[in-house]
Amino acid sequence: MSVFTYIASDYPLKEVENPHVKTLSVNQALEMGIEVADFLLEPSFDRDKPNVILWADDDKNFGEISIRAFSRDDLLYDIYSKKKYLAQLEWEYTECRAKKLIEYIKDHLNEADEIELWNEWLGIDTNKLRPKTKIHHIPIEQLTCSDLEKLFNRDTFDFPECIIVSKTK
């Protein structure tokens, strides 16, 4: 079980790649001078197999924002949003990254009326009663880094929590 953070909207979500992280084949890693585990150098292992090694230019950059679309069918767990478009949000909170996320949200609200930011614990037994969700409605002009920090830096996960950010009408 783990924390799952995602974004939901009725309008397609723009994907964002972490520019500091990439996946490599063993041969690509070796060409870059990266030390590779011995078992990956066994003759039976395909050294050209893609996406074997996760590499970052600096460990602190693993936490940069990454947003990747997914489908409800991709998960075994329940998604609480009813919105059509979903994207996984991967990041570690910093104020600088929160400001970037707010800019992403503002940009998205040029097309959509609202966007949902979800933080939930995967593995809650949804065959029983669905846990109550905590929903916060915040107009984009009032959304702050502190709001994002409260949502995404929680220590406990007794319930799914969501911020619905709306544009000014």
Number of strands: 8
Order of helices and strands: EEHEEEHEEHE
Distance between termini?
Answer: 39 Å
Shape: elongated
Strand content: 25-35%
Q: Which structural class fits the helix and strand makeup?
A: alpha+beta
How many distinct helices?
3
Q: Could you tell me the radius of gyration in angstroms?
A: 19 Å
Chain-averaged pLDDT: 88
Taking pLDDT < 50 over at least 5 consecutive residues as the criterion, the unreliable ranges are none
- The percentage helix is 10-25%
Major pleated sheet: 6 strands, mixed
- How do the strands line up in the largest sheet? 4-5-1-6-8-7
Descriptive overview:
By secondary structure, this protein is of the alpha+beta class. Helix content is 17%, strand content 27%. It is built from three helices and eight strands. The strands form two sheets. It has a six-stranded mixed β-sheet with strand order 4-5-1-6-8-7, with helices on one face. A two-stranded antiparallel ribbon has the order 2-3. The longest helix is centred in the middle third of the chain and has 14 residues. The radius of gyration is 19 Å and the shape is elongated. The mean pLDDT is 88.
